[in-house]
Amino acid sequence: MFKEERTESHFDWSMLGNLAEGRPNLGDSMNVAVYRLMQFTLRDVLIQRMGVADADRVFYDAGREAGVQFYAHVLTKKGSFPDFVGDLQDALRKLNIGILRVEQADLERLRFTLTVAEDLDCSGLPVCGEQVCTYDEGFIHGLLSSHTGREFQVREVDCWASGDRVCRFEAHAL
């Protein structure tokens, strides 16, 4: 499942397993620090071995695939943009991922400014002057591409780690 060499994704939602069966006592929740421990140590090793640009590409691409899968398997309201956004807001809050707000939406040109407060990846990190939510950029790309059928460029412009109190993303269709 994970050890074969390949160049294309073979991810399948079933790889997440049966959490109710596998964790009957601990359930499906864990501390955010444990998630960040996995994410930031993985990122550190990737940067050591590949450099910052390639590590960022890996995180962005993984986020994009996660966004596609999340759209397909978690979201249920995929008709209108407002229904999609409302469903996404509910899911992100319910799963304790973050609090999504759409600041601007140009549906004609497919240009969006989104914020995420209490972001799983970075809220509460020390200020380091960097935007660190590369995975989230990809995740938003995957969600928007899945919903619109178009490819997107997503860029984080504000981040908790750069001194802001929300993560702000600008997205536009290519």
Q: What does this 3D model show about the protein?
A:
A four-stranded antiparallel sheet has the order 1-2-4-3, covered by helices on one side. The longest helix has 22 residues. Strand 3 and strand 4 form a beta hairpin. The chain is built from five helices and four strands, in the order H-H-H-H-E-E-H-E-E. By secondary structure, the protein is α+β, with helices and mostly antiparallel strands. It has a single domain, classed as Muramoyl-pentapeptide Carboxypeptidase, domain 2. The termini are far apart.
Q: What's the topology here?
A:
Blueprint: H1 19-22, H2 32-50, H3 52-73, H4 81-94, E1 99-106, E2 111-117, H5 134-148, E3 152-158, E4 167-173
Antiparallel strand pairs: 1-2, 2-4, 3-4
Instruction: Encode the helix/strand succession as letters.
Output: HHHHEEHEE
What is the CA–CA distance across the termini?
34 Å
Strand content: 15-25%
**Which regions are unreliable across 5 or more consecutive residues at pLDDT < 50?**
none
Kindly provide the radius of gyration, computed on alpha-carbon positions and rounded to a whole number of angstroms.
16 Å
In DSSP terms (H or I, runs of 4 or more residues), the helix count works out at 5
Could you tell me the CATH topology label.
Muramoyl-pentapeptide Carboxypeptidase, domain 2
- CATH arch. level architecture: 2-Layer Sandwich
What would the principal axes of the Cα set say about the shape? globular
CATH class reads Alpha Beta
**What is the number of strand segments?**
4
CATH level-four homologous superfamily name: Trafficking protein particle complex subunit 3
